[in-house]
Amino acid sequence: MTTRYRVEYALKTHRRDQLIEWVKGLLAVPFVLHSQPTAVFEPQGTSVDETALVTQRRYAEIMRDVEEIVNDHIAHQQAGTHDRSKLKLLVPSVATFFTPLALHDAFIWQDQRRFISWRRFVPPSFNDVRLVLNTAQVMSLVRNGPLELVTFDGDVTLYDDGQSLTPDNPVIPRILQLMRRGSRIGIVTAAGYAEARRYYERLYGLLDALHASNMPPSWKQNLIVLGGESNYCFKFAGDSPDLLKLVPRNDWLLPEMTLWQESDITELLDIAESSLRDTVKNMRMDALIVRKERAVGIIPQAGHKFCRETLEETVLITQKILEISPVGRRLPFCAFNGGNDVFVDIGDKSWGVLACQRFFGGIEGGKTLHVGDQFLSAGANDFKARLACTTAWIANPAETVQLLDEMGELDEMQQRKTR
Ligand code: IMP
Ligand code: MG
């Protein structure tokens, strides 16, 4: 591994999403050709709205072309030749698409809210494209509804990092609304505890609201929690003091997961722990090691904040050591940067989402949406959910609320159309 390679890898690959970067690059061309920055000091020229509409048409045409390239990739997937699709050549990191993406319509939708085409100095950004992709995904899911399962990450997606889902959280009525429309809900979080009480403490706002709601009792059963990525399953239980009941592993594990050997789990966690200990020592980190039944991690000593670079270094070293170990090839694991901690969990969110799909009777990836904040390719734990279902990449809990409102609005439009 040359130094150059390490610099490229460490600075770029895992901190970029190649599909988003590619779309951003395509949109940069009409921005350069049509955005007319000089109009700011030449007020007699064409109006802002006229210029914007020309630019919007160009952007939207590009999004239509990308939409078709995605459709071509899906056709290749169905024929078993996805490695030969045009999109795969252009963006080698793309994997499976579970549904088409309504990119053209989504661009217009977001443009009416973010005024991307009206900008003359700031080109379409990473966040613009990320939000257009989210809208395109939910448009497609709603149009080909019903959306049968929505899974949510916890920290940063439902509540701020390290906080709890308190009763005033605006996401609560939106999740209940989704349940009333018939969607099942899974909270797929890395937070790993074997006791219901710990999850009640993190999620009580939502659990209490569901308990108090006038929803039929059988519908309330449509919420489960999958903790430790894919290690603990709890179902809603109105008669339990914590409103959650542990589901025995044998009742929900996928057949492949029953093959995970206890001896392998211990071996993998031992290797991870020793790597974490080395990094803590070498980087002089004020950290405590936390070893659990299905995870090992480092957390800061009281009041301490780790810098991003240290956290990423710790994840990348541990991940690499595990990847090259024989047990790391036998057993799925997830090493990630939790904002101010680093954890290595047994399994990952693809297994967590698959377990939710199975729990609810075998829901397909194209009828499932996972909403999360960690979608970078290394050191992020929601990324793996892409193997199991469609996804939306949000940046904070307010964006989750916005996304759910968008879904509600699109759903109403769809209902009106079919009436
Ligand atoms: P998520 O965003 O809901 O996936 O939660 C991630 C956070 O859960 C981590 O950053 C940790 O602070 C916390 N956490 C608590 N226990 C565990 C564990 O066993 N594994 C991983 N993360 C944990
Ligand atoms: Mg998160």
Present the secondary structure layout.
Layout: H1 3-11, H2 18-34, H3 48-79, H4 86-90, H5 103-114, H6 126-143, E1 149-152, H7 171-180, E2 184-188, H8 196-212, H9 217-220, E3 223-227, E4 232-236, E5 244-247, H10 249-252, H11 262-282, E6 287-291, E7 295-300, H12 308-324, H13 326-330, E8 333-337, E9 342-346, H14 349-359, E10 368-372, E11 390-393, H15 397-418
Parallel strand pairs: 1-2, 1-10, 2-3, 10-11
Antiparallel strand pairs: 3-4, 4-5, 6-7, 7-9, 8-9
Bound molecules: inosinic acid and magnesium ion.
Residues 153, 155-157, 372-374 line the site of magnesium ion.
Describe the protein in words.
The chain has 419 residues and is an alpha/beta fold. It has a domain of 140 residues. The chain is 49% helix and 13% strand. The strands form 2 sheets. The protein has a 7-stranded mixed sheet with strand order 5-4-3-2-1-10-11, with helices on both faces. Strand 1, helix 7 and strand 2 form a beta-alpha-beta unit. Helix 6 runs parallel beside helix 15 and helix 7 crosses helix 8. The longest helix has 32 residues. The relative contact order is 0.12. The mean pLDDT is 94. The structure holds inosinic acid and magnesium ion. Magnesium ion (MG) binds next to loops. Inosinic acid binds next to strand 7 and strand 9.
Keyword list:
binds magnesium ion; ISN1; single chain; 13% strand; magnesium; globular; binds inosinic acid; IMP-specific 5'-nucleotidase 1; alpha/beta; 4-stranded antiparallel beta sheet; 7-stranded mixed beta sheet; ATP-binding; ATP binding; 419 residues
